[in-house]
Design goal:
It is a single chain. The chain contains 2 helices and 4 strands; from the N terminus they run βαβββα. The chain is an alpha+beta fold. The protein has one domain (about 5-80): Glutaredoxin (3-Layer(aba) Sandwich). A 4-stranded mixed β-sheet has the order 2-1-3-4, covered by helices on one side.
């Protein structure tokens, strides 16, 4: 892999109030468990201006809306399942 994948999760108040704390914890554990920490840069982001559709997750330049704890495993598997 030539460059690292950049993944950002919105930490604006609206997304945070909708459960991003649990989603962030799940993502960190997923990256650790699948040995992806050296391939994916994961960090929080300021408001992505899509508050009514949040929580929001950006992977490289693509934004995924309505990211919940019940959806995050499938999202991560679809995005990163082939690079484990």
């Amino acid at each position: 892999m030539a460059h690292k994948i950049e993944m950002q999760i919105c930490l604006g108040s609206s997304c945070f109030s909708r459960g991003n704390r649990d989603v962030v914890a799940y993502i960190r554990e997923y990256l650790r468990k699948n040995h992806l920490e050296d391939k994916i840069i994961f960090r929080g982001a300021r408001c992505m201006n899509r508050c009514s559709n949040g929580p929001n997750l950006r992977i490289n330049e693509r934004t995924i809306e309505d990211v919940t704890l019940s959806k995050i495993e499938n999202i991560l598997e679809q995005e990163f399942g082939t690079i484990k």
